[in-house]
Sequence to fold (142 residues):
Amino acid sequence: MSLHKHAGGCHCGNIRVVVELHQSAADSPLRACGCSFCRAHGTRTVADPGGVFKIWAEDWREVNRYRFGTRTADFLMCRGCGVYVGAVCETESGLRAVANVNCLNDRAMFTAAPSVVDYDGEENGDRLARRAKNWMPAVVHQ
Fold:
């Protein structure tokens, strides 16, 4: 089965991403995290454990790795234009990621209503295990 590739990045072009998913954009389940960061950014995220999230930057000094709350993931944002492209997290299964489909060129193709989720109160060990299982492998090109 071939993977569906979706390219995108930040508004100013410093950050570029490619997300590869097993399902089409329309069939890919989306999530809307209930945390204050994701609500403020209006995120719609996607992850496919059998897919991959790839990220490049023209200037990595202009990529903000923002950590908050449990400090278990880096939320990747462009310092120049402020676009949030996704989050990466080191797990027992390696580096895992979730992508913000709003930064993808074909974001309108992701038509599923996002499931609203709330991870408040989740223990760090449980959180990392969930991400290892549900988030997609990440490749950071530095």
Summary: The mean pLDDT is 95. The helical segments are 36-41, 124-134.
